[in-house]
Amino acid sequence: MTESTLTFRRATADDIDAVVALVESAYRGDSSRAGWTTEADLLDGRRTGVDDIRACLDRARSVILLAERDGRLVACAHVAVEDDAGYFGMFSVVPTLQGAGVGKQVLAEAERLVRDEFGLRRMRMTVIDVRDELIGFYQRRGYRRTGIHKPFPYGDERFGLPKRDDLRFEVLEKDL
Description:
This protein is an alpha+beta fold. The protein has helices at about 15-25, 50-60, 100-115, 130-140, and strands spanning about 5-10, 45, 60-70, 70-80, 85-95, 120-130, 145-150, 160, 170-175. The protein is built from four helices and nine strands; from the N terminus they run βαβαβββαβαβββ.
């Protein structure tokens, strides 16, 4: 599949179930192991749910960006305004398409949206800090580790069931 065939659009309420399924497939369970973004060794339980997706869609200055190829959902990301920067999260690519350039295109489109439509000059994200390969992916695209850490929400099953007791988030940032 060529990179040029991706089309982007904003999710609507009609897309909620498909977004939940995509995110879960990219991060949880055995299906996620087909790609390199799996969190299956770190977390069980859910990664997102209908409630989370609906909240993202209902929030002001918040978009769930969808990437489609031939009418099929292949990737998504949540892009929003938080404080003085864009926020990038819930980034998911169909596991069997990971490593094929889809993610790079989605990230670039999210950065364009934040810069051109939200009028912001910085993008932030949080990544579980033991995910060295994932952090490296973002660093190769200009993101830097800020050294700012946030606690993992242990005990809140909406964020998964941790398999380790040393999880925390690190804030990554890029000037756009």
